[in-house]
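It is worth pausing here to work through a concrete case rather than discussing structure prediction in the abstract. The textbook approach is simple: state the sequence, then state the predicted structure, then interpret. We follow exactly that order.
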Amino acid sequence: MKTKFIMGSSALFMALLGSVTLFLPEETLTYLGADSIANASLTVSIMGAMYLGFAFLNWYTRSISIGGIYARPLAMGNFMHFAVGAVTLAKMFRIDMPQLLIPIALIYVLFALAFGWILFFKRL
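Step two, the predicted structure:
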């Protein structure tokens, strides 16, 4: 299986999250039920910049061979992001989670599994 689809779709997903959190940080925090918006708005904007940076990295490297020893740091970075994000979002199921975060959590799990497969099992 080619990794171009996984890299491209993860890039588009992170670009969407990055655009929302970078340009609408107060609205994002309000939707998530944050108490103090003033202090967290800067953090959410910086998080949006991180998402956009990772999205561009994935988009521009979507055509290279990934798996085995090829582009291992790229696969590891994506795996760590999505695996830790999936675990963190799964912990939110214990509290009152906004409905929008449920499909985002499922997408994180799918990308964590995909990048785990690329990182640990795909050999070129």
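Step three, interpretation. The chain has five helices and no strands. Residues 37-60 form the longest helix (24 residues).
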